[in-house]
Amino acid sequence: MLSNKTIVLGITGSIAAYKAAEIASQLTQAGANVNVIMTKEAIQFISPITLRAITGRPLVTEMFDLASEFSIEHVSLAEAADIVVIAPATANIIAKLAAGIADDMLCCTVLATKAPVAIAPAMETNMYNNPITQDNLSKLKARNFVIIGPATGWLASGKEGLGRLADIDDIIGNIRKVLGRGGDLAGKHIVVTAGGTQEPIDPVRYISNRSSGKMGYALAEAARDRGAKVTLVTAPISLPEPVGVDVIKVGTAQEMRQAVVKVTSQADALIMAAAVADYRPIKAAKDKIKKREAGLTLELECPPDILGSVKGNFIKVGFAAESSNLVKNAKQKLQQKGLDFIVANDITASDSGFGVDTNKVTIIDQEGKIDSLPLLAKREVAERVLDRVVELLPKPKSR
Ligand code: PMT
Q1: Ligand 1 pocket member 252 (CB < 6 A)
Q2: 275: CA distance to ligand 1 center in Å?
Q3: Which label site among 167, 183, 231, 290 has the fewest CB atoms less than 10 Å from its CB?
Q4: Helices and strands (H, E) in the chain, number of each type
Q5: How far is the CA of 192 from the centre of ligand 1 (A)?
């Protein structure tokens, strides 16, 4: 979704300016046209040559730099931008923007653009907490600027505190979210589940499965990037939380069910990529079970079927991980659980299903249409699943 987007990346004079090189690199690699504007203070911290080499594009450092193709028409960048991002943003640029000052190319571009503007503050804790900076940030927020961070951590002064530039993933995630605002899921609420639930045997042991959450997280991020409000109900896994998504952490199938019932009351679609435990101990032991040479027999029961029992006027999508009779088994689950469509994973191949970055799926719908997709990155599978969701959503009434 970043492909061919025009992003103006403003860099101001902070020790964190070197991180702008990584931001520019990630955006460029994702296919965006990154036009960098550096303030004169920023070039004390990082060389314009670095940014020029990374983006492969002309770069502006001066308002009246006749050698720059952009500065001749100083609003041309503002007009071309799909988003303006200032990272890092110093207290100085924040104050200037709040006051509407236009004394350098970056300020002029922000004043002249109709594109959304996101800023990632980076400064010492006291400067950030100063009521003047806070007032300035409030003014910008009130004018729909997106404020990313700051984070807490190691600062240039050698102290730890609030004011560190937000993580690069956080900045890129927010850029994606802002750019997705006009997407085909704008205004829709999509609930996604991910990961393998954990059913306790005793305080230290549980029954679970090999789900890494990658499929569910890819769906959540893809839905966010298409403009949806996304709620991700996730079992315990080790992936970083997606940016710009409401995350609800659960442990057991029962907890996942409660969360899903609650958040689907306003949902447009529920996509269950989670591998919910099919069995759980009837009763978890209160104390750690001692090792017995004779072995141990556990009595198991089935947790409630979430998809099959959750009610509401939303699109229901299930996943089925099958090692044999893929289509037959998936069709059975489609009917039993009353789904709009089901995504059957072929888990016989080592590059499909649990734990890996790719998936080979067959989408089967209520009309009996069977769509077998090739092996794709999970993010690509997510896009195809969401394409089907979009087709099923009620169409806006034409005037
Ligand atoms: O997490 P990854 O490592 O990326 O792997 C992704 C995945 C393989 C886990 C995922 O793509 C997947 O296939 N998830 C469903 C796994 C499965 O086989 O579920 P199932 O056949 O037990 O259940 C069918 C559907 O009913 C699923 O959507 C499941 O979420 C849902 N279900 C299951 C049990 C239950 N008690 N309640 C449910 O709602």
Answers
A1: no
A2: 4
A3: 290
A4: 13, 22
A5: 12
> Which structural domain, as residue segments, surrounds residue 133?
6-180
Q: Ligand 1 in contact with 271 (CB < 6 A)? A: no
Same domain, 236 and 365: yes
* DSSP code per residue over 187-227: T-EEEEEESB--EESSSS-EE-----SHHHHHHHHHHHHTT
Q: DSSP strand E in 293-382: where? A: 300-301, 315-322, 341-346, 358-359, 361-365, 370-372, 376-377
Rounded distance from Cα 330 to ligand 1 centre (Å): 11
For ligand 1, atom 10, name the residue with the nearest CA: 273
Cite the active site residues: 209
Residue 229 Cα to ligand 1 midpoint, Å, equals 22
What is the bridge-based pairing of β-strands 83-89 and 117-121? parallel
Q: How far apart are CA 339 and CA 392, in angstroms?
A: 12
Whether residues 349 and 304 fall in one domain: yes
Ligand 1 contact via 14 beta carbon (within 6 Å) = no
| Ligand 1 neighbourhood includes 333 CB (under 6 angstroms) | yes
Pairing status of strand 146-147 against strand 189-194? unpaired
Number of the ligand 1 atom closest to the C-alpha atom of 194: 1
Find the CATH number of the domain harbouring 251: 3.40.50.10300
The alpha carbon of 342 and the centre of ligand 1 are apart by a number of angstroms equal to 10
Residue 162, CB half-sphere, CA atoms under 13 Å: how many?
9
Per-residue pLDDT tens digits for 244-295:
999 999 999 999 999 999 999 989 999 999 999 999 999 999 999 999 888 9
- Its pTM stands at 0.90
Q: Is 321 in the pocket of ligand 1 (CB under 6 A)?
A: yes
For residue 348, report the phi and psi dihedrals to the nearest 5 degrees.
Answer: -80, -25
Are residues 164 and 213 both part of a single domain?
no
User: Do the domain assignments include residue 1?
Assistant: no
Please state the rounded mean pLDDT for residues 296-313: 93
Radius of gyration of the chain (CA): 25
pLDDT in tens, 164-178: 999 999 999 999 999
Cis peptide before 304, with omega less than 30 degrees from 0? no
- Do 230 and 263 belong to one domain? yes
Is the Cβ atom of 242 under 6 angstroms away from ligand 1? no
